Amino acid sequence: MASTYEPLYLKYRPQSLGDLVGQQSVVRTLTNAIEHDRVAHAYLFTGPRGCGKTSSARIMAKSLNCQKGPTPTPCLECTSCVEVKQVNSPAVIEIDAASHNSVDDARLLIERAPITVGGNYKIYIIDECHMLTKEAFNALLKTIEEPPPNVIFILATTEEHKVPPTIISRCQRLMFKLINHDELAVHLRNVATKEEINIDDAAIDLVARRSGGGLRDALGLLDQASLLATKEKQVQLDDLLLMLGSVKEDVLLDFSKAIKDGAAEPVLQAALSLLGEGREPALIALELSKHFLNLAKAQLKIPVLGSPSYLEALTEQSKLFDRTELAQMIEQLSALEQSCRRSTQSALTLEIGLLSLCHRLEITELKQLKDKVVDLESRLASGVPPQAMHAQRPAARPPSAPPVSHAPAQSHAPAASYSSGA
Ligand SMILES: [Zn+2]
Asked: What domains can you pick out in the chain, each with its CATH number?
């Protein structure tokens, strides 16, 4: 028996402009254009992946060719609407520029353009249009500028900067954006209710945060999470964290506090416990680097996503860190993630990296002392007397190095003192 399963992102693909989530300005512009018969002959849809660009292009095709249209609310039942939905409409030609990017592809398209079907609009959707070659763009220029009547070009791209300005200036440009967290969470809750997915609000919240504002990714994650649910068993935050290989917010806060204090024992214990639960070392490092970045953002009062209790604790904890120190930790954790991905012993790499983070101050201090000894030795060997060294080279800490406590006092400069800034 054939499976009737349909992924959520396909099942809940917007069918009319009113279904588009979080793209108010696009919806308003296109609705007005259809209602006032002011549809442009070429559009450029820009924005991140999974935000509804291709769906919107198909919605335009439905709206313009619906037997009850043109209308912003196509009937979704007439032959034309059904054909567009089933992606077999003769009036809609979709081209993936990633695989059809040559000048010949562009010429073929231009030759076919004048053939409209039964007085309907003919809509060319060129997805990932930035992949077209320069020659293909040039071939398209004139047709886009003066297309045959009832022909509409919709170019979609995630990388607008790669589209030639000559093309951009001939299109009406509509910018799709990532969906804000609250709107996305509400939408996910609606879908979960309709699909009878037994999932709690904290888990929905995490799905919304994790997808970073992309609807397609969010619905993909919800789909995956739904497999953990039964009628009796609700998907909780912990189930989802485990599925995603993520770390709980309070565990992250304990980590950062212990790393700040240089307390290696609890840090390594916590890492071992996460590894024991089957989490990937690289993902642990990634979660930690994101969390430390959140601390830096909290210091700068830049909004961060998280539960209210996490955000409150984050703000408090961020006051303990020095800004430079925090920046260095983020860099170190990000490098650690990469090392874990490359390592054949990634758990070991993670533990070593965390240990070195805990002892970062001592390590830096030792390195600086070692450098000084090497420098002194080489100068003594070359016969420069120690007094002359100070005169030749005033001692100064490089601006990138972290402040170090108990630095050896110089005769002409006060010892650098370590202060934990706000
Ligand atoms: Zn229709």
From this structure: 12-175 (3.40.50.300), 181-244 (1.10.8.60), 249-361 (1.20.272.10)
Give the pLDDT means over successive 10-residue stretches in the chain (422 positions).
78 90 93 93 92 92 90 92 87 82 72 63 90 84 83 92 91 92 93 93 90 90 90 88 86 94 94 90 92 95 88 94 92 95 94 92 77 84 65 49 44 40 36
Which H or E run contains 1? none
Tokens, residue 197: 């997915």
How far does the centroid of ligand 1 lie from the alpha carbon of residue 196, in Å? 29
Ligand 1 centre and the CA of 90: distance in Å? Answer: 15
- For 140: left if phi > 0, alpha if psi spans -120 to 50, otherwise beta; the answer is alpha
Ligand 1 center from residue 177 Cα (angstroms): 28
Closest CA to 328 of 397, 403, 252, 396: 403
| Secondary structure (3-state) at 199 | strand
Q: What is the ipTM score, two decimals?
A: 0.99
In angstroms, the CA 336 to CA 340 distance is 6
Ligand 1 centre distance from Cα of residue 121 (Å): 13
